[in-house]
Amino acid sequence: MANNDSRGARMSRGDRRVLIASSLGAVFEAYDFYLAGSLAVIISKQFFSGVNPGAAFVFTLLSFAAGFAVRPFGSVVFGRIGDKIGRKYTFLFTISVMGISTFLIGLLPGFNQIGIAAPIIFIFLRLLQGLSLGGEYSGAATYVAEHAPAAKRGAWTAWIQTPATLSLLLSLVVILGARYVLGDDAFTAWGWRVPFLLSAVLLAASVWIRLKLHESPVFTRMKKQNKGSRAPLKEAFGQWRNLRLSLIALFGLVAGQAVVLYTGQFYALFFLTQTLKVDIMTANMLIGIALIACTPFFILFGALSDRVGRKPVIMVGLLIAAFAYFPLFKGLTHYVNPALESALERSPISVVANPADCSFQFNPTGTAHFTNSCDIAKQALAKAGLSYRNVAATDSSIAFVRVGTDSIPAYVATGPQAKQEEIRFAAALTGALTKAGYPRRADPAQINWGMALLILICLGLLITATYGPVAAVLAEMFPTRIRYTAVSLPYNIGNGWFGGFLPATAFAIVAASGDIYAGLWYPVSIIALTFIFGMVLLPETKGTDLEAEPAFQPPEPENERYPSVHSPPKPGGADPG
Question: What span, in angstroms and rounded, lies between the C-alpha atoms of 161 and 27?
């Protein structure tokens, strides 16, 4: 292909193939990844049913780590390979690993068939999924950016952001379709494997398309000129000039983008189902329609960044999100479940407890067991999506929940009577809430469908504004010889950790404060910090020549230079990174 800065206005057939292959590959790979989360309840019964509680805790923790915490390690592994061997073959390998791992989960016998080997193999396959996901996005972003004309790089790279919405939608459609065709009993028994096995078709399509691609022209010219890095990891993160840019990318860009993405998709879905009591099918339908409506705006905001700059588009999106989240989520309550809103105002709830007995319930794996009466009371109300006021008790007696004029004592979840006490407390709390007018589920007749959908679309538009130009910014911040490596780590730390831990962190804040909206302080705080760092430190990258050192990059100190690919290694020396 021709130099990417001198391309015409028309997109060639090869250009379209680049965009389709990179975008569809990311859709399929994220689809594979989301399946394990969507089918978590069924999977736990299949693979962990006979595991003792201690081992089950370890396996659950590892399974969670594969989803989020492992992604940055995958970015390091595949980023280095991508900078040394090439973009095409690296992300061809990542999608193959992801697809094969997913397909094998669909074939894996359960605990009842092969015993302890089932959860061990399952965790191993999930680790492979997490590692490969860590290399996919950065590979696609780098590959597309290095093909795109400089004047259209924002619009072209925005295509690979669309999987952030479409992949979740695709996984839900396949799961719900299989459940509808097979029936609940058959789906629970064996039909849950069908969505995993279907990944073989998606994998074959992705590999077939990607095999037709050529290597990135920018990378190819770099290799011909012998300007590659022999130590991309050390050069990307061992030199302050490059590490500084990675930190700016993380704290001045990706951290905020990640929490906007997770708030608009996952936390909004959680809020609809857990707090506002909307049934899962209806909530998924609302989110799905909003995502479909917003998806074209990824391209629009990417193209806008080609005109006005990347930084203004992203920073304005972050600023609006920081101020809009509380009104938008309060609006959801008003238009989706007005009966709940009325009950909260008419019959406020209080938890009366000794503050010393109350824990901060950060429980990302869902395996922690809270036993104090205060924790029991707060956990029950937080899971029910109810706001409450904390009232300090003057003694260390059992905590109790006050609903209107009724008081329900909680219990200590230890001892032989714990199960009976749990049943007693749940029944008494449910009775008091019903008496006070708290709805057990959202009434479809009272939902203002138009306004609810409009609010969800607003949340989706904030995602597209902050996420659309991100790939272009990341690709333009780093030189070609270390681009894959340098892009991978900040992106995967931001989305794997800052975004991935959002639901658990938000739930813990809600449980501690008693305010159903308090969990929003986590994304708002991250967004505010990202906005400040970004405004001060994030460079404007629009118009950057990908084959030259970035203009905003300080000169490289002589004593920090690493040899290029054509420099002969020292005798007996190993490849340093």
Answer: 9
Task: Say what angle helices 40-47 and 117-147 make with each other, to 10 degrees.
Answer: 140
Q: What is the dihedral of CA 203, 208, 210, 213, to 10 degrees?
A: 180
Question: What confidence score (pLDDT) does residue 464 get?
Answer: 95
Distance, in Å, from the CA atom of 298 to the CA atom of 316, rounded to the nearest integer, reads 15
The 3-state DSSP class for residue 443 equals coil
Entry field: residues in the chain: 577
437-474 pLDDT, tens digit each = 899 899 999 999 999 999 999 999 999 999 999 999 99
Residues 6+ apart with CB under 8 A from 129: 32, 33, 36, 66, 67, 97, 98, 101, 102
Given this model, what pLDDT does residue 367 score?
56
- C-alpha dihedral over 100, 54, 40, 101, to 10 degrees? 0
Positive or negative: CA dihedral 106, 169, 441, 512 = positive
Query: Is the pTM above the cut of 0.90?
Result: no
* pLDDT classification of 157: cutoffs 50, 70, 90: very high
Query: Which residue, among 318, 304, 399, has the nearest Cα to 351 in the 3D structure?
Result: 399
- Residues contacting 260, CB < 8 A, separation 6+: 317, 318, 321, 462, 463, 466, 467, 523, 527
144-154 pLDDT, tens digit each: 888 889 899 99
Look at residue 55 in the predicted model and tell me its pLDDT: 55
Query: Within 10 A of 271 (CB to CB), how many other CB atoms are there?
Result: 23
Arithmetic mean of pLDDT, 517-538: 96
Average pLDDT of the chain to the nearest whole number = 84
Give the Å distances, CA to CA, from 138 to 76, 165, 198.
11, 17, 25
d(CA 192, CA 47): 13
Q: pLDDT of 528-554, one tens digit each?
A: 999 999 999 999 999 888 887 776 766
pLDDT at position 338 over 90:
yes
Give the span between the Cα atoms of 476 and 200, in whole angstroms: 34
- Taken in order of first residue, the domains within the chain and their CATH numbers are 15-336+446-560 (1.20.1250.20), 342-435 (3.40.30)
Whole-number Å distance between alpha carbons of 463 and 506: 19
Q: Are strands 389-392 and 400-403 parallel, antiparallel or unpaired?
A: unpaired
Assess whether pLDDT exceeds 50 at residue 564.
Answer: no
- The alpha carbon dihedral of 391, 394, 398, 402 has a sign of negative
Backbone dihedral region of 348: left (phi > 0), alpha (psi from -120 to 50 degrees) or beta?
beta
Provide CB contacts within 8 A for 189, sequence distance 6+.
Answer: none
Helix, strand, coil content of the chain in percent (nearest 5): 70, 5, 25
Q: What are phi and psi of 547, to 5 degrees?
A: -100, 5
